[in-house]
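All the exercises in this workshop are built on plain-text protein records. A record pairs a protein's sequence with a compact description of its fold. The structure tokens are whole numbers drawn from a learned vocabulary of backbone shapes. Once this layout is familiar, the rest of the handout is easier to follow. An example says more than a description, so a record of this kind follows.
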Amino acid sequence: MGVVKAVILIAGPQKGTRFRPLSLDVPKPLFPVAGIPILQHHIEACASVKEIKEILVLGFYPAHEMSSFIQNMETEHGVRIRYLQEYAPLGTAGGIYHFRDQIRAGNPDSFIVMNGDVCADFPLTGMLNFHRSHENAVATMMGTEATRQQSLNFGCIVEDKSTHSILHYVEKPETYVSTLINCGVYIFSQQIFTMLQKIFEEKQSEWYTGMPDQDTSKRDAIWLEKDLMVPLAGTNKAYVFQTTNWWSQIKTAGSAIYANRHYLSLYTKEDNKKDRLTVNTESGPTIHGDVFIHPTAK
């Protein structure tokens, strides 16, 4: 088995405004859901994949807001973890291109990319095996079924049912395309950097030959969904790994309650996480269902 890296995209303080007021005092990725920071759920999922040798967290939060947490996670999970701060909002793929040398260091045969605003029972090992089973795969996208109405709010995938090759991809379509939606989790092979370089150069050319405004981030921003996955569809180089595991986005304060309930339920199924749940004691409160009570609560 080859070396694999993981990249977690957490954006920055200018994003996630719908998560307020929960993110007013703490960066959204560090807001606790089911007793631990949202980002920790991603890191634990990555650390459980034995092939992953390094986890890179990309975003434009100030480094001092993330450094203590990253250091603690590295110590706790025994895997190298680094926070790489973007100089500006670069989109979902701009940071990957900007930090391409750090991602490619050690010559990983592939790397996992996870959006920081999704919560799930992440099937990373199964997805990695699926990606490796397709020798020509440049990209594998995790997908799940939604209703027709829900699908309009997500990227929609049309697949070849026999090979799972992505035939067509539309980001947030105006009309119905498919109920198979993008979960914001990907696996890429290193060939993707050639495509990203071409996209970057095209954007630079358009910006300099047009009427450039003062916002250079528009010039440098690249999006996985629109700039990369749309042209990859239909090339037999992009595949969809469909999961029936629980998955949801965490965009709003209300969605944190939904994610909290499901993560607590997952704790009951994992021996190394069961001790996070509060249990009934003679001197304590009566506990109904899956509950986390912080040790400092009185």
